[in-house]
Amino acid sequence: EVQLVQSGAEVKKPGESLRISCKGSGYSFTSYWISWVRQMPGKGLEWMGRIDPSDSYTNYSPSFQGHVTISADKSISTAYLQWSSLKASDTAMYYCAKIQPTRGMDVWGQGTTVTVSS
Amino acid sequence: QSVLTQPPSVSGAPGQRVTISCTGSSSNIGAGYDVHWYQQLPGTAPKLLIYGNSNRPSGVPDRFSGSKSGTSASLAITGLQAEDEADYYCQSYDSSLSGLFGGGTKLTVL
To answer: Considering chain A, what is the average pLDDT of its residues?
Structure first.
């Protein structure tokens, strides 16, 4: 079964750093891009960026460029989303999704809730 | 404000047909980029509903259909069922290959 399993919920303070993960299984991890999507409480989906796990080439939305870092470790089939200094406005659910070329994001992780509060 | 514009809400009675529009521009949908649609049931992760403008993944009922014309796309749902009550999102790309989502449409089954 093709699946993406994300790391668990996080509660952090403003200014702290964080890295959440997304582990792929059941398919060739390096053959498909992984995207990250934010959903703030009660709001819609926002595309943050994507990574090609085969060479770690990344493509960010202008809205998120410089605010987060997307990376991957193909040896363990895992993609990451990282913040160096969290803000309260980063409180959201974050999803990773496997991108099938021309076929959209066909497999989604279960989501990771990030809460940033003092 | 999303680059792809969707109506905030639509509604219909069981058995009826509803459509959800997704309006973009010549920089995204109109530039030839495919449109995909996702369904998000309450409290769950989004699910791919339509890919490549009009194609259904395996397991998606044929009550769901998609189309694209010019700078817009549409999702149609026929034979509405209570279980279709969800949020629906269109998605495409722009010329920098940055992904774009519509603002989402909440479907209420009356």
So the answer is: 97
